[in-house]
């Protein structure tokens, strides 16, 4: 049997447990978009939290709680996840899934426009060690700027869906999301405040370190 690269990685390195499988099922049954992170991306996020020793993580885009679980379960005992979500019903749904995973006390949800919540976090003087961006694509560059403002020295910033199903590779593709993600990728690559790389698995993940 011939496997794709993704199938091989998932078969050998990724063990999506019953908790995460249940989240995917619950999202589908609730009629929500089935756009949670790929299992290998989730595994990498978990590793990054552990490897960096991050204590405070900011997630932009909660959906059904899949990424929230992989981030929160990697935190130390005194760690905290702050999750920004546009829709209150999605935030409530995600929180229920984190509670089922035994992680409900590690997460704080803020609902409404993410840019407003980011401004509030800045005004409160909050700082974070790791960021995961997975929300509306047109604001990715804005979210990156805010992440840098809210970052502790050496913080890691990650962003999902940065290949857009490989559409960014085709110059003829000029859809709003594709154009926005091209701009984000170029910004992440060229910003002197960052060391960054695009990892071409899942739908593409940018990983950057704040200098």
TrEMBL record:
Residue spans crossing the bilayer: none
SUPFAM superfamilies: S-adenosyl-L-methionine-dependent methyltransferases
Matches recorded under InterPro entries: Cation-dep_OMT (IPR050362), SAM-dependent_MTases_sf (IPR029063), SAM_O-MeTrfase (IPR002935)
PROSITE patterns per the UniProt record, alphabetical: SAM_OMT_I (PS51682)
Coiled coil: none
Domain of life: Bacteria
Keywords (A to Z) from UniProt: Methyltransferase, S-adenosyl-L-methionine, Transferase
Pfam family, one: Methyltransf_3
PANTHER family: CAFFEOYL-COA O-METHYLTRANSFERASE 3-RELATED, O-METHYLTRANSFERASE-RELATED
Protein name: O-methyltransferase
Organism, as annotated: Tumebacillus amylolyticus
């Amino acid at each position: 049997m011939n496997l794709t690269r993704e199938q091989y990685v998932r078969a050998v390195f990724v063990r999506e447990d019953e908790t995460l499988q249940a989240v995917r099922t619950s999202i589908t049954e609730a009629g929500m978009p089935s756009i949670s992170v790929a299992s290998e991306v989730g595994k990498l996020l978990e590793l990054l939290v552990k490897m960096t020793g991050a204590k405070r993580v900011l997630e932009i885009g909660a959906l059904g709680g899949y990424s929230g679980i992989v981030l929160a379960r990697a935190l130390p005992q005194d760690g905290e996840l702050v999750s920004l979500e546009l829709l209150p019903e999605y935030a409530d749904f995600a929180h229920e899934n984190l509670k089922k995973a035994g992680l409900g006390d590690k997460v704080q949800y803020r609902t409404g426009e993410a840019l407003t919540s980011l401004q509030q976090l800045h005004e409160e003087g909050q700082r974070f060690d790791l960021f995961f961006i997975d929300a509306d694509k047109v604001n990715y560059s804005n979210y990156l700027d805010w992440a840098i403002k809210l970052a502790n020295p050496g913080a890691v910033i990650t962003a999902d869906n940065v290949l857009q199903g490989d559409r960014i590779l085709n110059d003829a593709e000029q859809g709003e999301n594709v154009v926005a993600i091209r701009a984000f990728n170029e910004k992440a690559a060229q910003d002197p405040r960052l060391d960054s790389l695009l990892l071409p698995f899942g739908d593409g993940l940018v990983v950057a370190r704040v200098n």
